[in-house]
Amino acid sequence: MLGQTIDGNALEGVSSTTLYTLYNRATFAAGDRRVVDDPMALRIFDSIDYDWSKFGKADPAAALRSRTFDRATRDFLALNPRATIVALGEGLQTSYWRLGRPHNPWFSIDLEPVMDLRSRVLPDEQEITHLAESAFDTAWMSSIPQGEKVFVTAEGLLMYFDEASAMALIAECAARFPGGGMIFDSIPTWVSKKTIKGVAMSDHYTIPAMPFSMSTSRARLLASEIPGVVSATEKLFPSAHGMSKFMTNRVLSDLPRLRDLRPCTTVLQFAG
């Protein structure tokens, strides 16, 4: 419940990354460093008892990524006002509140330990349905109502799994949700290799390995490789005051030899 301090130490492995992204979002949602308007992240950050220092220096990438996902979701809802949103591996994301609590069915999907923590620190909402399931066990798809278009978000998710699983999930979403769409982020190969060797954020925390990588150029080919995907478009991070390295990424996006060296966010449109 909000107002209580909740122990966050039950989350381990990939599930613990939701605490890492919350830490980064909350850090850059406050004071002079603010790059995202996320009061709910600040609220739940203060409600969780956890040694946040183990994550080391905060990084604004998670906050800017959230804004990028928000923009894509908002764009889809503008074209499809009655759409259903499916947030895969949602963790402690607060997208629903940043978007102004839209009156759309919202399905939040993650593993049981994560969903337990989420239910204890975030308020109940009539529009949100929580499903304690793996995003890759596509049984959750039978819970999504038919008749309206579906927009699937996979924020900070696919890179932690193997390529076959990630590609199969994308293909299944395209097949099951005609006329819908999907947004996911991916990392370049060099980052993937680095995490497999081990990236320590501090003496007490090492980022879980990220075996799946996909470059910007590779993502653009999905429309010709996966049945049901009619377009694959990159979404760049928004500009933010003082975030020069992300402005550099925007410049690199126009340089073919360099753009594949940075992370990318891809929006897919499904046929139908």
Automatic annotation (TrEMBL):
Record-level GO BP terms: methylation
One GO molecular-function entry: methyltransferase activity
Keyword terms of this UniProt record: Methyltransferase, Transferase
Keyword Transit peptide recorded: no
Domain of life assignment: Bacteria
Database matches in Pfam families: LCM (PF04072)
UniProt KW Transferase keyword: yes
UniProt name for this protein: O-methyltransferase OMT
